[in-house]
Amino acid sequence: MKQVSSGPSQISVAELAKRARVASRQLAKLSNERRNEILTRAAKAIEENAERILEANARDCRPAGAAVAAGKMSASMFARLKLSSRGIEEMANRVRDVARLPDPLGRRLAATELDDHLVLYKETCPLGVIGIVFESRPDVVPQVAALALKSGNAVLLKGGAETAYTNQTLVEIWRHCFEGFPSVSAEAVELLHTRADVMELLKLERDVDLIIPRGSRELVDFVGQHSRVPVLGHGAGICHVYVDRAADLEKAIKITLDSKAQYPAACNAAETLLVHQEIAPEFLPRAISELTQAGVELRACPKTRALLKRPEMIRAEEVDWTTEYSDLILSIKTVSDLDDAIAHIHRYGSGHTETIITEDAQAAKLFMEEIDAAGVFHNASTRFADGFRYGLGAELGISTSKLHARGPVGLEGLTTYKYKLFGDGHTVAEYSSGARHFTHRASVE
Amino acid sequence: MKQVSSGPSQISVAELAKRARVASRQLAKLSNERRNEILTRAAKAIEENAERILEANARDCRPAGAAVAAGKMSASMFARLKLSSRGIEEMANRVRDVARLPDPLGRRLAATELDDHLVLYKETCPLGVIGIVFESRPDVVPQVAALALKSGNAVLLKGGAETAYTNQTLVEIWRHCFEGFPSVSAEAVELLHTRADVMELLKLERDVDLIIPRGSRELVDFVGQHSRVPVLGHGAGICHVYVDRAADLEKAIKITLDSKAQYPAACNAAETLLVHQEIAPEFLPRAISELTQAGVELRACPKTRALLKRPEMIRAEEVDWTTEYSDLILSIKTVSDLDDAIAHIHRYGSGHTETIITEDAQAAKLFMEEIDAAGVFHNASTRFADGFRYGLGAELGISTSKLHARGPVGLEGLTTYKYKLFGDGHTVAEYSSGARHFTHRASVE
Predict the structure, then answer these.
(1) How far from B369 is each of A148, A181, A435, B242, CA to CA, in Å?
(2) Which residue of A has its CA nearest to B416?
(3) pTM of the entire structure?
């Protein structure tokens, strides 16, 4: 039986990362079938150990419950960390879902015949070692462990102190599943324990390939500022709904409400409503009435307040255009035209998701082409910006970075590619001398 | 006539980057035809201004020539900065080559029907603003300006002080070409002048999307350590040739010679030869004889020296396995088997390019699967790792990073993608409530 203790306090994070690197090379060799077998076993182990997980979670919940009573923890945070039997079933099912996803490895991205018997392939492969730093929700453990395993990556996890016992138990159960697979070390999944561990992790650019922070803005910013390892994570989600002059009013109202109020805490929820001045007199009174009914607090620009003759409306200040409320608050700006809307979005937007509501195909085309964001939508709610809704099957987060992965990131974000060149004794000298010439034919095989 | 002065000493780099951002949004709107028109015009302008460029270059060469005479600059560096009429013609032709490349923008990477009248596209688009920091070779200016323009990106260039006049002249000529294209500002191409400018550039993560350092290891390392902007650039090129037990001797000798000696200064040249112990007695004496004839200095591990009974051979020390000689020097290690070779490569390699010489398909497959590097080759010289040889049509550099771009990077490395979602009033609430269901069909259109 392998060592499954995950109490690595005596081992440095650097050493754990080195071992994870070795384990990642073992994982990279597993077939999709084998990876799915481990996933299925892990799902079953989660179900079989439900009681043990609930006990550990109860231990976490005791001080957390006291913190709520003392006003030191919000009820919503407590709800996120508390697990139920149903939550554990769901955990297991999501692991099975990951097993059912198509194999992200060995996908051929390109094939080129460079010359006779000299063929180049570009194929996907695992990144290697992924560090995940997350907060509160313990269901992150099986979810990211499953995604990492499916994509052949080792993973170092650091969760919040509030769920330390739950995380520890989940990781132990997960590591047990590697028994019976002697070709892979359980060191492919490790739990880190302290903030100091995280600081060390962020410096290991040689043995860690990617860091994914999942949690509050503060966490994401902290990791981004301190990491020497590349970071995948979204920045702010300052999303806009632009209601064009030629908008269909019903669609505009429906989409505005959905983008703001369907789930305001999400990063893809809208923060600012931009309205073309010609449609504002007709659209805004109805929109405002519906938004207010939905409990949305509104903050309007001077032009909007003047136009509506409602000086009592809360005035939108400069800071409102750059604030991710993550709440039932919406800023409203009346713009003079499409260009004005685009300029506002480029000035204040965070490159996340932007939508235009219009029946004017030309205006839509301009908006879709010109807006520099991960998602540009026409007549659809910003809330569609999501890996599951996009059909990616899984979501690791939404990236507002332009490199590697942009927008909702699925399993593909945990892969890279390598070039494989198959020759038969070929040397560059033969081509430099002109004795041979490249064919560079796209290859079908 | 637009302002074409590129003496921005009074304007801050932050301000130049902001203007470049605005210009990049103009560039992103240009059709491929229009971008090619500017490129063709630039190629012609380079030819027409050959004399002016040569004059500027002569001004740069005077102090450089004196530096060579005083032993303060190498003759090879002087050769790199000195331009000839023929060199200028070649510059112009390479710009025309870039115009002929396929359009890297608007390529559809995926299309998914999420539901009726709700279709998602993933399409390539420009990164935005690219910073290039390079040394000596002034032909970098038209080359990267052309690649940036072709891919719809604005560019901030900082060249070496040795070619300040040449660079300045080339940038002025290039910027003149934007006249007659009133929709694009000449601020799409700017020259920076000082090391302090570079330090400022590396901090502008909001307005600069990517930094590409081109030059010495010191330059690449400096930029990597100080940049808050993502950096595209290769680290060391510690490439290996592994001659397997089942190698064809002729191919092994040919490929070893080519990998080391065809152009030893290149990053894809081999630094270490790994030889299976069973083939070493037959292979090594012939290989050593040919390598020595080609002027290659050899440094051997103890096992190799013992096996060859040549104690007078220079002994390879630990540092030899991690040194990119960039010269006619090769370290040799006799390994016990394929696994030993793979372990050595993973321990000391830089993830650049690794090749196995063998007639054993199973050994080749293992090597190609297991080696974690940008390029894994079978029976081919490491020197094939190159954007032109790969058929990418252009090369911005070779990346040993696993994120965004790996291996030789072509125009694709200057692009990102965005998701375009076309709906008809769709809201997420309809799907959350179960009133509608996603279809997630791969779309053909």
Answers:
(1) 18, 19, 32, 15
(2) A402
(3) 0.91
